[in-house]
Amino acid sequence: MKNRHCILIGAPVDSGKHRKGCLMGPDAYRTAEIADTITKLGYTVEDIGNVAPAPQIDASCANELVHSLAETIAWSDTLRSTSNKLVSKGFPIFLGGDHALSIGSVAGVADYAATQGRPLFVLWLDAHTDLHTPLTTDSGNLHGTSLGYISGLDGFDAFSPMTHPVPAENICMIGLRSVDIPEKEAIAGSEMTAVDMRAIDEHGIARPLAAFLKKVSAANGMLHVSLDVDFIDPSIAPAVGTTVPGGATFREAHHVMEILHESNLVTSLDLVELNPFLDERGRTASLIVDLTASLLGRRIFDRYTRSF
Question: How far apart are CA 175 and CA 256, in angstroms?
Fold first, then answer.
């Protein structure tokens, strides 16, 4: 990574879905020694603690299924300002919290990228596209609308405007295996790159990622990576409320992170949807910390293996 100063931002967002528990995510990553792991790779680490949502204001939506709208907006406003401020000072890592936090984290990075005259690219590592809007979601869960907001779709009138929406051609989704009909239609009519697990099975995970990174490099772009726990197969990452079988394997996930490190293009990172209440002795939190280490330069075979 070009920036050797990592900034940890606890974002205990738990308003984006009905099932609670993601608010414990930031402390689970700290317990899994994320700061110490990063420090051992030669980075400096600053943990600013957990941020708090802005004061809530009245908000409403025509879709009566939507819940926790005002709270999610409040989180988004705080994370947007925090992201915009910190991305200029280091490599921000947002410790989530559910995926609704990306509404704020990406908006803030996009605002900063615009001041630098650089395009923002987004890599969405997720089983879902999260391309709903508050008007199209049939679950009412706003964590499924994050990419819809980021890409500038209509229906987010209650939120602060996405001043610098990320162009569709600058968005790549990898790991998809649960996509609703309205989301499929949104993808079909856009220039987003959507890579499902069938494509990965047939062609591998490196080829589409390399093609996307080539575009980022050619444009001198900033790259935000949003890593959802459900990108990974639930057999090795069970601590997520939206488990979908058939996800990335241990090796595929690390391979992605190693490629991202070698690209030297990533400028900010989300770690989202960890629900420690659903974990098994911290195994998922530890895996995500290990993946972060791979993104920051640790190869999987560099780790010391103890003999017993």
Answer: 11
Full domain range(s) for residue 63: 7-302
Helix axes 69-86, 101-115, angle to 10 degrees: 30
Q: How many domains does the chain have?
A: 1
Catalytic residues, by residue number, are 99, 126, 128, 130, 143, 228, 230, 273
What pTM was estimated for this model as a whole? Answer: 0.95
User: For residue range 172-230, what is the model confidence (pLDDT) as tens digits?
Assistant: 999 999 998 888 888 988 899 999 999 999 999 999 999 999 999 999 999 999 999 99
Residue 112 in any domain: the answer is yes
CA distance 172 to 191: 9
Q: Is residue 2 part of a domain?
A: no
Amino acid at position 168, single letter: A
**Helices and strands (DSSP H and E) totals, the chain:** 10, 8
Burial state string for 159-194 with b = 16 or more CB within 10 A and e = fewer than 16:
beebebbbbeebbbbbbbbbbbebbeebbeebebbb
Q: Which amino acid is at 124?
A: W
Find the CATH number of the domain harbouring 246: 3.40.800.10
